[in-house]
Amino acid sequence: MLRSQPHLRRRLVSRAVLVSLGLAVPGRELAGQEPGLPPDPAPTPTAGAAVHRTAFLMGTRLDVRIGGLDDRERLLAASQTVLEEMRRIEELLSTWEATTPLSRANRAPVGEVFPLPAELHRLLESALHWSHRTGGAFEPRVGALVRAWDLRGTGRVPEGATLAHALAVSGDRGMTLTSEGTVRRDARAWIDAGGFGKGAALDAARRLLADHGVNQASLNLGGQLLLVGAPADQPRGWSVSVAHPRRRGATVAALRVRDASVATSSASERTVEVDGRAFGHILDPRTGQPVPAWGSVTVVAENPLAADILSTAFFVLGPDDGMALARSFPEVGALFLEVTATGDVSARWTDPMNQWLVDPAPQATTYSPGRPMRPRP
Q1: Residue 32's domain is classified under what CATH number?
Q2: pLDDT digits over 127-184, tens only?
Q3: How far apart are CA 147 and CA 155, in angstroms?
Q4: What DSSP character marks residue 284?
Q5: Is residue 175 part of a domain?
Q6: Is residue 74 a part of any domain in this protein?
Q7: Least confident span in 78-92, 100-114, 133-147, 275-289
């Protein structure tokens, strides 16, 4: 998998997910813009104290809302700790700042072991574990492909030989991880954290919220959500709307989620046009080609890192192969929305998704504009 990132500090990525604090949220998510969020002042998630903070992190907007405690100072301290921790993860993984550990690993001399901080080593181990579990549909060692398609610039369609060379030095052919650190096998090889950075940051936030005893929180990092507990008046969970893959203002499915992360991947999130040809920002690391805009995948998982990675891996695989792989993860819910030739949306999902769907229809259904999948308040 590859998701391009114009900057871990200035990236704009929209997702097909809106979150509300127990209320329906008017708004939409448009390619190249920030996700729709409740207007300020937003409803509080609890009758007690609550804190709402926003920040610019990993090139997108972070919206933090925490409550469930009567002590506002305690909530403020928790929110500050979460912001600082997520910024620290950004500074560990950014490949736009030359001084970060990952950037230095990406510039290490070919053939030499570059020692990594223990935390970065663990994150890369996790990323490569998921690469193996997804059969290479997720792969962070795709820097040569990023450069071949100029996804950090204005975009270009690479010539056949250029693409073949980039593909030949992706994955473990270009860079390996040993017990001591990373080893570059080719000067063109480097690791892009765009496919797992937000999940890693939200996972760190999840642990800190638990350490601070916060049992009610909603975090939205560029469209990926971390939802802890539930609003006081909605014990089933936070209200989440999943949008039509091509019509951001149209809701296709309604979810109620608690103690989990929600991530959606779609080729319409961000596109580049070259010589009249539009292509998405998600590349298939197995072929080096952009993934067709067939629809979207929404994943709900307890672990934000898993949600981040799997939503894109399933999308890369497509609706059939992606669904087959998704069924092998009994702890993960996956919703596949496939756009038909008539513009309708065919919806399928795995069994674990039933616990999150609001009044679900049968597990294969079709959405037409103006007729969503029977959502209820």
Answers
A1: 3.10.520.10
A2: 999 999 999 999 999 999 999 999 888 888 999 999 999 999 999 999 999 999 999 9
A3: 9
A4: -
A5: no
A6: yes
A7: 275-289
